[in-house]
Amino acid sequence: MVSHLVFCFAGSTQENGMMHYRALATKQVRTLRHLMCLSSALAGILVATPDLKAAAPTKTVKRTQTTVHHAAIKRSPVTAKEGESVLISARRRAHGTMISVGSAQIQKAVPGTNPLKVLSQQPGIMFQSSDPQGLDTWSSQIYMHGFMQNQISTTLDDVPLGELVYRNYNGLNPIQAISSENVGRMDVSTGAGAESVASTNNLGGSIEYVSSDPKEKTSGTLSQTFGSYNMFHTFARFDSGKLTPSGTRFYVSYSRNDTDKWKGGGNQFTQQVNAKFVQPIGNDSSIKAFFDWSDLHQYLYQDYSLDILHNGGYYIDNYYNGKSSGYANAYHAAQGNYPSYLNGVSDKADAAYYDGSSNINDYFGYLKGDFALTDRLRWKTTVYGHGQKTLLTWSNPFDSSPNGAPMLEQVKRPSIARYGILSSLNYDIAHNHIEAGVWYENNRFLSSMYGYEQPLLGQGSPINSVGSFSKLSPFMQFYGQAINTNTFTAYAQDTYHILPNLALHFGFKSLLNVSHAGNAYYNTAYYGNDAMAGGVGLTTFRAFLPHISGDWHFLKHHELYFDIAENVHAYPQAQFKTAASPFAVTQSAYDISRPGLKPESDWAYAVGYRYSDKFMDATVHAYRVNFFNRLQMISSGAIINPQTIVANVGGVTMNGVDAGLTIRPLRGLAFTNSLSYNHSTYDQNVQSGGMLYATKGAQVVAYPQFMYKTALSYTWHDLEAHIDASYTSRRNLSYTGDTKVPSYWLTNFGTRYNLTNFLKSSGRGQFVKGLEIDFSVYNLSNSHYVSTMGENGFPLSGDYQSFLVGAPRQYFGSVKAEF
Description:
The termini are far apart. This protein is mainly beta. It has a 24-stranded antiparallel β-sheet that branches. Strand 22 and strand 23 (432-453) form a beta hairpin.
């Protein structure tokens, strides 16, 4: 075992910092007033300007790589159409920066790939995972401009998906909510998230998934993918087409993804059913329903430290191999007899366990009514529900089973039951688009952990950690906790179109989030004399979270925009001692930290410029964020049972800029380059255990200062090929920055041939309406690199076992047919 001093931040692993909110509140309000006056003055100048040739009409220009929508003259917010064929639409709405990634771009990736990985091709966005498709829920992470996923809101068709973390407490991972093939587009705000987004954590932006609608013609889609390490991905979808004159239609789809791990033993399996129903009402109203069932079973990759990486190599993993020898090796290791390949590793006991796994089952759905009450007034209401049951396992070699086996299976059994309603009104009058809405959700989060007996060597089969536990009985319970949360938000916003090419936006959001932890179970025989935080509650309340922005299309092809917003992150929840949640500690630790706790919040500022024509796109986006009241979990002692406390450790100041350029010198050829710089530093030093750690001025952990991305694509008739490469600079592993993981390059290649025209010309397309074949190579140069970081938290100083290494070169091929 290793003693350690580790910090985790709220919800999972990334932090950003803050200064005291109340001390700045008056100053920030004055700043907003000055900015609004400045905006009004600018508007007056522009109104007086006689040259209005810069006013660009609403249009959509189809291109090989990028499509740009200029929609300032419309009173309603810009939205992409369902089923559009564009790849990426980089647009500016009056309430902030918006990037839309369409289904065409998502489908260029290996089928079944996490859409967030596709999104990471954009400047300032980083996605990490230990597998090529980004489906390993333990390792998948996304950052936007220094913010980690638990600080970025996610929704599906407006329905909140909760915090995007491994141990979710108020939602589900988007890949468990919808198959990637059914994603119509993703609308992404890389600055402040819009106030209309149903969320309690959008400090760093929002990702809004939009599902595709059923097709109007009866059709079917079938695709099959094969890849390295016995990877198989199957997707099948049936669209009913119009069933009635009014346009009633639906689709049902099934997807299945199975692959062996690229190192160690075990597989990663997911299957999913999606169904969507649409009933049009008149010409401009509808009722929609969506259903999702997801079943995930994954053996996990073992976490790494710099010690393991440098002294053990790239391919160390858990002992499980599907054979009796794997359990025997783990059994002997638990007794202190380690394999020779761990000789150079200082912490051999934690370098490998028998196994670890995730088992997650979700049911999710909604019913939505969207009604045009008049030609100016629209009412939209959605009711939804979600249930999740989870088994997260780990073979603990530091505690014995009652039968004398030197290990036990430690199983976390969290569950989620939530329901909610969203309702909004949109009204267009003169040059104003006015919108107001509310959101309510009740969420019950149960968190518990149990111990199961492993057999003596040679006297039975070890527990199948990805199988059913219904017939197994635990011999002990470690802890148990139930937290009930009620969330209510209300917002109002107005987008005023001063000119066809100039729009100003002002809105605000109010949030009330009340969480209460009931009486909890705490195993004093295991943990010692204390109690788990119980019978306590926390309230997050903000009456006025403002958001102002502007968008100006000037001259021809040019655009300027700005965005300013305040946001808050409601107190998060987590399983015991796993993250920076005030509820995930002992009662004594809660009592110590409670007086200093405040919800995390921030002020985000952004300004940008864009140029676009048929030959090139150029963008510059600059941002600054002041992050306050950063919550951090400080842990010390043994890694399996540390002493923890959650504390307010101050702030982070973020400054950054993205620059991108896409040129199209020839028809079908596109060459894209982008560079991102981020300077995010802690505002204060941290004191713990009687020591002062010099974190002030250090770059935040896990996020690079520099990222460079380049891509080249060419389309010739029905053949398309692309290659992309990215550079990620060094990242801090410790808060003081005295340990870092190295920089790396990653390169991918893909090609696709569409046989549809060939089928038609040969007269063979009567039944098969479309046919495509794809071939892709992940990690073309077979780079060794560090991917995910901080899944177990970050150390204040020095090394710690809390990162994963990326997958080696892998090959994929697929066939897709439409009927």
